[in-house]
Design brief:
13 helices; 62% helix; globular
């Protein structure tokens, strides 16, 4: 393992393990192993700092880990923030992410020509400044009921709107609370199937993010971690996407530090950008 992986592992062990001396031996062992695999996930990301790997969605996930868990800043992120300040992303499809990644740089997001999933999740990121259309809730329900990535992202959209306490959420809170519970239950069903893939790791991580994880969610991680560790140990024989690694890294941080102060992934901002 490279030096930064060893460093990050030592950080985990110092800050998360046996802090009170009251956790069980099984829990201590699990946290130790989770910290070890998380250090390998960090090592993977830190070893692959290219724009081809760090697409804006991965930057979003890692930036959130920096804000919530004090993950180390990376050179690729510093370069991206500098590009954002110079307007490099202002006209691209990713500009709706910029107020999370680099606050106060970018443009008012387009709400057309998005994929069906992004047509719901992107407005949720900006919901305090957008008047969401009357059919927005219907679109969210239709997509959420499809399952798969539509399900994970509609759950994510609801949590973002709730965190921002945006007008649309407050006006439809009873229905959105019902849908949040419905979709969390569906994510638990998905995780229970035990697949070792990007979608299921995303579902488990989002359950931690939304405060809905259970012991079954934890058990899922510890069934799949040995398989994922083998991928990290054999990078020339095994393949894993950077998106999956970033999700796993985030999910393990949530597991390791359940008492971390809650942070909104989509930070509210006071006015439109330029």
């Amino acid at each position: 393992m490279r030096w930064f992986g060893v460093f990050w592992l030592s950080f985990f062990l110092t800050n998360f393990l046996n802090a009170s001396g009251l956790i069980s031996e099984k829990t201590a062992g699990r946290k130790n192993y989770a910290a070890f695999v998380a250090s390998k996930a960090f090592s993977y990301l830190a070893s692959n700092q290219t724009e081809a790997i760090f697409s804006l969605d991965i930057v979003l996930l890692y930036t959130f880990s920096m804000r919530k868990f004090n993950s180390p800043d990376l050179q690729i992120l510093r370069e991206l923030r500098d590009k954002a300040r110079r307007g490099y992303y202002s006209r691209g499809g990713g500009n709706a992410l910029l107020h999370i990644i680099t606050p106060f740089y970018g443009t008012k997001p387009a709400t057309k020509n998005f994929s069906s999933i992004d047509s719901v999740t992107m407005p949720a990121m900006w919901c305090e400044h957008l008047t969401l259309q009357n059919d927005y809730l219907d679109a969210l329900k239709i997509l959420g009921d499809k399952g798969g990535y539509e399900l994970t992202h509609m759950y994510w959209a609801i949590i973002m709107m709730k965190e921002k306490s945006c007008p649309f959420y407050n006006e439809n809170s009873a229905e959105l609370i019902r849908l949040e519970k419905k979709y969390a239950d569906a994510l638990h069903v998905l995780v229970a199937k035990g697949a070792v893939d990007d979608l299921t790791i995303e579902a488990a991580t989002f359950l931690y993010y939304g405060g809905a994880a259970t012991m079954a969610t934890e058990n899922y991680f510890f069934r799949v971690l040995p398989k994922i560790e083998k991928v990290f140990d054999n990078p020339h024989k095994e393949r894993i996407s950077a998106h999956t690694v970033a999700l796993l890294y985030w999910g393990l941080l949530e597991y390791l530090n359940p008492d971390a102060p809650r942070k909104a992934i989509a930070v509210p901002f006071s006015s439109w950008f330029k």
